[in-house]
Amino acid sequence: MSEVNTVTYLKDYQQPDYWVTHVDLTVDLREGETLVRAALQVKKNGNHDNPLVLDGEELELLEVKQNNLPVAKGTNPAESYVVDRTSLSLQPAQDAFTIETLVRIHPEQNTALEGLYKSGGNWCTQCEAEGFRRITFFPDRPDNMATYSTRIIADQIAAPVLLSNGNLIDQGQLDNGRHYTVWEDPFPKPSYLFALVAGDLACLDDTYVTASGRQVMLCIYAAPKDLDKLEHAMASLKQAMKWDEEVYGREYDLDLFNIVAVDDFNMGAMENKSLNIFNTKYVLAHPDTATDADYEGVEGVVAHEYFHNWTGNRVTCRDWFQLCLKEGLTVFRDQEFSGDMGSQAVNRIDNVRSLRMSQFPEDAGPMAHPPRPNQFVTINNFYTATVYSKGAELNRMLYALLGKENFRNASDTYFERFDGQAVTVEDWVRCMEEASGRDLSQFMLWYTQAGTPTVTARWSHDQATKNFTLTLEQDVPTITNQSNGQPRHIPVTFGLVGPDGKDVFQGVLELTQATHTFTFEHVPPHSVPSLFRHFSAPVILEAPYTDDQLRHLMVHDRDGFNQWEAGNRFLTTNLMAQVDRYEHGQVIHVGDEVLDSFRRILQRADMDQELKSLALSLPVYQEIAPQREVIDPHAIIAVRKAFLETLGRQLHDEFLEMYNTNYHPGNPYDRADAGRRSLQNIALGYLSHSGDVEVAELAVRQYRQANNMTDRYAALNIIINMDEAQPYREEVAQHFYDQFKHDALVVDKWVGAFARSQADDVLQIVKSLTQHDAFTHPTPNRMRALYGTFSQANPKGFHAEDGSGYAFVADFLMKLDAKNPQVASRMIGAFEKFRQHRMELQTHMEAQLRRLAAMESLSPDLSEKLERYLGKETFNRLRGEKGNAQTPSPS
């Protein structure tokens, strides 16, 4: 583990000294070891005498050849090869040559799950971002695009299925019960897109006929027991292929497309060329085991990884600083796809809620960085909400500014001009400029600067002239080394909603200066501005809406997102006011205006069911906390609890009527009924806070009668958290586990339900779970279900007054960092905003961060974040005192 955090800077980018143009790989999978032979065709880039340097980690080098001649090991790369912990160097004999290496690796021991590893008896790879160097020596960087031929050898009983990128061109039998396959990928790709899977897998296959009439074989592989859970993923894949043809003109380019689902996976999924590897969470779906949200997740992630075939694979990133180029654009594409498959408004609301809960805090915290960072210690730490979600918002703003036709023309130019190349954000934006004839140099600040702008709106109406004046003022934060505070180019999709509910004006305003005033003529009095429709820019809006104006937008705004946003703004304002009261020792008061607002929504019969469900949802803790200057978790929890209880009691009859209207246990499962189920379950949720003991019986009845996981899991969560359901809790929880203990994803749900429990002894509950059979061999999913849910979705338990919740998570991270640094680094995010919490909690959190920083051995992944959280000076001092980390944690 490195002691000094070595920083890589965007400004230092240079092309490699040598290009690898073709790779012949032979991967010999054996019990206890794997041998990898790589033959690289290399050519010099430019006129120089520098040695060839290949990346390599955790490799046992057995042999090196240059142009088929053995090369000896030594200390001078001019005369021999030189190998160390991270690289192999030698001096080429000529400008074009071949290098062949043979290495031994141990996938069974690879707990980091980077490179080639073994999971559940199957071999699997994860090469993004820098995992290929754990398989063989190679220039492991995205700008080196090469063609690959891969031969895989394995025991036929242990691994009857052998898969890699491209098309299968040969297969056959070998001696001693072994067999082989040969795969050829004709499209040049960077090393991070290499993939290999071998094991005992079942396959669901289908075909897709492209727009040009070619037939593509589609295969989705999973464990044989999960074969009946692949239909939805297959349907989603075919829908994505069709959508990409129709919306972007992009057709699939090979004869075969494979997806493989694996239990042990650090990420959600990986877009390896023609061989996508997925976390089972985003492939497997069946009504008995997957919720409506799971179905939507599968649809969106399958589409996302498929869309990468063009936005990421055929055109890739020049360097890892350009990660948002492929990820931001692909997230935008998958969001639009999901909206077209369902409700654009509902999908947009879900995306924006996620953005505000994850990316906005990141932009205001110690890990703030632009969508295109200018430096990093490890790229693994920059697979972030900023790169993905804010990166998507940048493309959405371009779409709003340029319009549908220009955006499509620009993307067509981009694909045609850069097919088979590794490019930059500037290349993408230049295509936008050419298609539209616009100067987007100011817009580029969104890519290169961090921080979330605040836009303040003021308006007035002149009764005499009938002019409506709107003034917008933007305030861009200044962040050291990350943002210079310059005004951004902000598209404001805007409408003026007249007193009759119809739009007086609609269009896109462009805010490019610090302050700009817009004037609209012939506007009737009492018209209400609808700002940032469809959330047209990732900004914080401060606007002086009255309650009457918000109610007007809630009923009449033609934009579904802003309909919801008006209600959300109203509720958030009321919640924040009551948190202020609570913190000053005053009684929490839920006003009649809040009850009346809910009552009106409950009575609306014209509203989309899913939109209505969202309108009835109280903003969650993670939406309120980032808006507090100083976060007192227990104040927010107390206020939300008071609101839930008041709404549940005062609107008991209305919620009960909504529940009974939407509860149809005898109906066969239909995904189209997701809106009905969401109304049913949100009603049951409010009723569970009403103090009505009969609601516990409703929840138990729903659990027992449920024919789908959505209803069953909603009931389980209510039974776990409802005081009146205590007599049923143990029996129902045990029944759930016994019924699904052989289904890993459902056990993850079960674990997560307890990890978010609101019981006073939740810490003891989660500690006991670590000794449960479910934690014998925990996957990353299982660890996230317990520790991730507890630390990021259970503020009551995590923010315990005595600091015990922080110590529990820190103890786990100390162990995890040595085994799986990627997952440890992601989980430490729960501590990121520790300085924003009230002092007592801040002190407890900082103590745990200091414990972690003083560990004897610390991964670069965790080290980079700890340095940013604690500050460089404090971090370096603690590293000098390392070894003193084993302070007893509170019990």
From TrEMBL:
Its EC number is 3.4.11.2. Residues 23-193 form the Aminopeptidase N-like N-terminal domain. This is Aminopeptidase N. It is an enzyme of class 3 (hydrolase). Residues 233-444 form the Peptidase M1 membrane alanine aminopeptidase domain. It holds the Pfam family DUF3458. InterPro entries: Aminopeptidase_N-like_N, Aminopeptidase_N-like_N_sf, PepN_Ig-like_sf, Peptidase_M1, Peptidase_M1_dom, Peptidase_M1_pepN, Peptidase_M1_pepN_C, Peptidase_M1_pepN_C_sf. Its cofactor is Zn(2+). The lineage of its organism: Bacteria, Pseudomonadati, Nitrospirota, Nitrospiria, Nitrospirales. Belongs to the peptidase M1 family. Signal peptide: none annotated. Residues 451-543 form the Peptidase M1 alanyl aminopeptidase Ig-like fold domain. One of its GO terms (molecular function) is metallopeptidase activity.
